[in-house]
Each structure stands twice: as C-alpha cells, then as structure tokens.
Request: fold
Amino acid sequence: MRERIAIVGVGQTYHKSKRPDVNDVEMINEAVNAALNDAQLHPKDIDAVVMGNIDFFEGRYLSDMWTVDGIGSYLKAGFKVHTGGTTGGTVANCGFFVAASGLFDVVLAVGYQKQDACDSRAALMTWSDPVWDRHIHKGAIGLHARRAALYMRASGAQEIHGAMVRVKEDKGACLNPYAHLKLNLTIEDVLNSPPLVYPLRRVHMCPTSCGACALVIATEKKAKKISRKPVWVKDWTEAHLEKAPVPGIGSPEEEVSINALETAATKLYRRNGITNPRKEIHLIEMYGPTSWSELQWLPELHICDLKDSWKLIEKGVTEIDGELPVNPSGGVVATNPIGASGTLRVAEAALQIRGDAGGHQVTREVDRALATAYGAGGWNVVVLLEKNL
Amino acid sequence: MLLFPGKIIMDYSHAAGRVGSRFLAELKKSKRLLAIRCRTCNRVYIPPRLTCKTCFHNMEDWIELDGRGTLLTYTTVYYGEPVLDREAPTTYGIIRLDGADTGLVHFLNEVKQQDLRVGLRLEPVFKNERNGNILDIKYFRPIKSG
Ligand SMILES: [Zn+2]
Reply:
C-alpha cells in the first residue's frame, strides 16, 4: 500500500540556448525558488530531494553534490538519477516513489541541463557502444529520421503533416513565456526549412536549451494543507528498451514502434481502469524530440491507430483548442533543456489541470492528463495526473 | 580477448555565474578579494556563491577581505599529472582568510618545507597580468614582516 501523493508546486526557468549570466547552481536556484514560491514553502519544509541531469553535458560529475546550495538539499535525504534523455521524467517518477513510500511528507524533484557548456552531440556520442557503434554514431537525428520515414510509409502521412504538428507546437510556444524557440512559423516555413535527414528538417528537431524545472510533491494529508489545487499523481510507469537502435544496426521490430512507450502506457491504463484513452485522457504533454514523434507515438499511447494519427492534426483534435490537446506548451521541439524536459512535461500537465498555464491554457476542461518522457537510452516514462482524488 | 582503446575529448565552456563573475572581475581589475555574507547566519563565503547552504537565502552583502589568512592544512605533491599544468613538486593548502568562514584552496610558495605548519600566517601574491581567473593569485606565502 502506498501513500496517495500530489504535486503542490511547480517552477521553471525561462529557457534559452545560452545562459552565460548564471552558472548551473544559480540557474537551478531560479526554478527551485519558483516551485517553492508556488507551494508557499521554505526549503526547511522539504524532507527529501531527487535531482538529475545528463552526465557529461556540463563536464562535471557528482552534480548532486555541487548543486546542493542552489537546490537547498544540504543535510537532506535524496539522490541523483540519470537515464539519458528520459532523465527529467525519471526525476519526477523517483520523486513520486520517494513521496509514496510514506517515509517523507514533502519531496522536491529537480531536473536541469545547461547545454551551453559543451557540444551536446559530442557528449551524446558516448552513449554508443565503443566496440560496435561509436565509429558510425552521429547523434539523434538519423535515428528519428529513420523512424519518421518508416512511419510515413506505414501510415500514409505526408510531409505536410509533420509541418502541421510543428506549426501547432510553435503556436503553443509563442503563448508560453517560458518557451525557448518562438518562431511564428507557417506551413511554408517548415516545408522550406533546410533538410537534415529525410523527412526531418531543421525546425522539426528539438533545440539545445538551458533550463531547469522543479516539482514539489506531497503526501495526501500535507498536500491538502499546502495547496488549494493539488494535482494528484494517480500513477506512473516506465519501461526500458534494449540498446539504442543506431540506424542500420537496431532491431527491425523497433522500426516504427518504440514498444517501451506502448508497454508503459498499457500497464498504466490497465492498473487504472482506463479502457478508452482517446476519451478518458483530456490532455497530453508528450516528450517528442521531433515534430514527427507525436504522430508516431499517439498510437503507442492507444489514442488512435497508426494510420489515423495524422488525421488528428488535420482535424485539429490535438490543437490548443482541440478535443485532446497535445503539447500546448510547445513541447520539447520548442524547449529542450534535456535533463529538465521530462520534468517540464509533468509540470506543464499539472498547470493545465490547475488551470494555471496562463497564455497557453487549453480551452477544454482538463481533469486527467498524461505526461511522458523518452530518451534514446531506451527509458520511457508515462505519468497519469488527475484533478480529483 | 580483445581490448579497444578509447578516448574522449570535449571542449567545455563553464559559466562562472553572477556571483563568481563579480569576484573574478574585481580580482582582475584591482586585486581585491570579495567575499559574500549571509544576513541570517552571518557566514562569510569565499569564493562567493549565490545561496547560503544552511539558510538558502540569496546573498547580496559583499565584503572586501584584505587577503591575509591562516593555513588550516597543507600537503606537497611529488608527482606530475597530465591534466595539471603545474609541474611537481607543488605545495597547496586550505587557507582561512581573515573575516571568512570558509576555506580557500590554493598554492603555497616562497616557503621552505621545514617552515610549513598549521597556523602559518599567509598573504597572496598576485600576477601582474591578470585575466579574471582564480590563478590571478599566483600563490600564498608567509606574511613578510613590515
Ligand atoms: Zn546563512
């Protein structure tokens, strides 16, 4: 039996490609202070801290140690997690685990990344197998291009559908004061954007951002005291793939599907009696590293069939004023401080349930939302948030 | 069994940050050592940082230290490391500057091995050409009388 838990505070930085004005600790401190202010708490009220970032990007290990003063974790319980691109989602999940254990009343979960410190792609290359893949590994673009091309072939989607998703994400980002890229894109802009690897164009791909995001998580009794609008963390799941499929080397069965997202979602739905996710889920903040990810992965979340996901964007279903908004914040394609990107999905979904998202608040009422996180390292995280207990 | 050699080479750009940049700029410009003080617990930090570790306040009270301090501990390194740019042997120590509550780690020089002891009074020696780096202090040495 676990404790029922809720998110009672969220905070994030303004995201940018470069933050030369602050060091990592000062940047994290901005998000932590925002989350504590949102919850009206002081660090002394926090019982445990979970934090995470991707190793290598900032060129220092033991980030849990040297960020203690910025987070306020001095002499507190806690640990660091790192699961590649999924890190921010795993940070949230581990925060949930710790809070639900009943050992702590209030838990702070913090994800961050400062990608102006190095060439992220060079750092990412250390993910590949030094014996079999490293000589050929070129970062994340090829992997996602291959998946998108296979998705197009399997579903009948055209280039315009990836462009429509990109424009939708940009509309959200332009309304979100914290978002990084605000490009005022048209469909033509996307279709004329320089190609990377077919069908991916430059604007399809997530940027490298600097930023941090913090969640304050509390057990039921505390949550009701702290917040007028606690967002209940109903459940969370994760599933792991085998080694990352580098183009030409990965498993053929992972060509379109990433399996692990489907596995994690199916488990979550089953445990919570969700039989018609298309109707029962009201909003999704999905970790999509490219604009094509949403089209590929909505079927994995059982929102629609593979052949129908591009029809959802055609009909406006996933727009900010649609029936099932997806990434109204602009998503990862607009804002990608990797170690915080998964945490941001949870934070943004929570704000939508509270009705506090501001400019990018969706039109429809949101009682139940999904947040996901993904990483080429293979972890997939799905979080189910609800307005009511 | 086969073993594969590997090598990781990456360039980084580390931000000194809001607080650290002010310290380094002042060191470069005027050889002044600035510490920062927490209003709640009065702890004085050097190098300065934004947040007090126990009080979590964002600190704003800058204090100028005169650079003199007391040696808390020291050691001499007799072997070289490819990642270090100083050749062995080097002596370094933790110095508590007068007016600070934290220790500053730095090199010690102009002192004979047999004269090194905990409690030694020290002063900084600055570079003439400074570029805003903690190594704009070349090293600390025993205070010269007068
Ligand atoms: Zn203090």
